[in-house]
Amino acid sequence: MEKSLQDVVQLQGGAEMPWFGLGVFRVKEGPELVNAVKTAIKHGYRSIDTAAIYQNEEATGQGIREGIEEAGISREDLFITSKVWNSDQGYDSTIAAYEASLERLGLDYLDLYLIHWPVEGKYKETWKAMETLYNDGRVKAIGVSNFHVHHLKDLLSEATVKPMVNQIEYHPYLTQKEVQAYCVEQGIQLEAWSPLMAGELLDQPVLKEIGEKYGKSVAQVILRWDLQNGVVTIPKSTNEQRIVENASIFDFELSIEDMDRISALNQDKRVGPDPDNFDF
User: Fold this and answer.
1) Is 116 annotated as a binding residue?
2) b/e map of 42-56 (b: 16 or more CB within 10 Å)?
3) 30 partner at 20 to 30 Å CA-CA among 23, 48, 188, 271?
4) Which residues of the sequence carry a binding annotation for substrate (predicted)?
């Protein structure tokens, strides 16, 4: 099992993705974000996840540059993800969106570029652009986000490069068993967004009880559950104490019984939109 914050999973195509990273969804441009990214890098995080629609790629990029310098590491030590937004989907516009993200981030390449949502009638064309970026060596890995099994099957019917990652809403109230099983079968790495259900699970009684047993917080229990399920996870925080606490999950292991108890909490309950029914 993963022993440290720098442990990686090898994706199809050979890129190495850390099991654990920092998400920056709903963090505004500005010093707080720059500081959060720098803090995460200082404390050993090597994966940062942003997206064009978050409108915070500039501050994320600044935090990356300053964090690299202060930690005495190189760009190659980090794994940076961004995503093409729905209004930019399509072949030429996806290539342009990639360039624009790089420019805002101040980077020469991304480690992972994702299709943010499965926009009907668009995502296959978008995927062709992703394949071009990948085949031209402009990006280390490509993938999707918020894709159900039927979206993946549809994409795979024409794809020449398989998505390497599917980033979905995933937490103890939304275990997405079918999506996970299909991704495992296809060698697509599952990644969790909103792993703590936007904080809604932090008072959950079963999770609190399990946390007490291991001397860990509810957040740590959930994030550990992610890892033991083979799911990459990217909790968001701008608070230094929580950034450190979230990552302190490599010194314990949940029993099979406790893993099952957590999985049994599933209610198919979402905090975000259903990928079959979104209007943006």
Assistant:
1) yes
2) ebebbbbbbbbbbeb
3) 271
4) 116
Distance CA 172, CA 125 (A): 34
> Annotated catalytic residue: which of 45, 54, 123, 170?
54
The pLDDT assigned to 148 comes to 98
* Cα 229 from Cα 241, distance rounded (Å): 26
Q: What is the 3-state secondary structure (H, E, C) of 147-200?
A: CCHHHHHHHHCCCCCCCCEEEEECECCECCHHHHHHHHHHCCEEEEECCCHHHC
Round to whole Å and give the CA distance between 210 and 64. Answer: 35
What domains sit in the chain, N to C, each tagged with a CATH number? 17-263 (3.20.20.100)
Chain centroid offset of residue 28 CA: 18
Buried-exposed string 65-90: b where 16+ CB fall within 10 A, e elsewhere: bebbeebeeeeeebbbbbbbbbebbb
Global pTM value: 0.97
Annotation marks residue 54 as catalytic: yes
User: pLDDT tens digits, residue range 40-87?
Assistant: 999 999 999 999 999 999 999 999 999 999 999 999 999 999 999 999
Instruction: Using DSSP, state whether 17 is helix, strand or coil.
Output: strand
Residue 18 DSSP symbol: E
> Average pLDDT, stretch 120-144?
98
Return the closest-CA partner of residue 82 out of 145, 169, 35.
Answer: 145
For residue 118, the SS3 value is: coil
Q: Within a 13 Å sphere around the CA of 11, how many CA atoms are in the beta-carbon half?
A: 25
Here the tokens at position 142 are: 């490509």
As a whole number of angstroms, the distance between CA 211 and CA 223 comes to 12
Instruction: Judge contact between 26 and 272, C-beta under 8 A.
Output: no
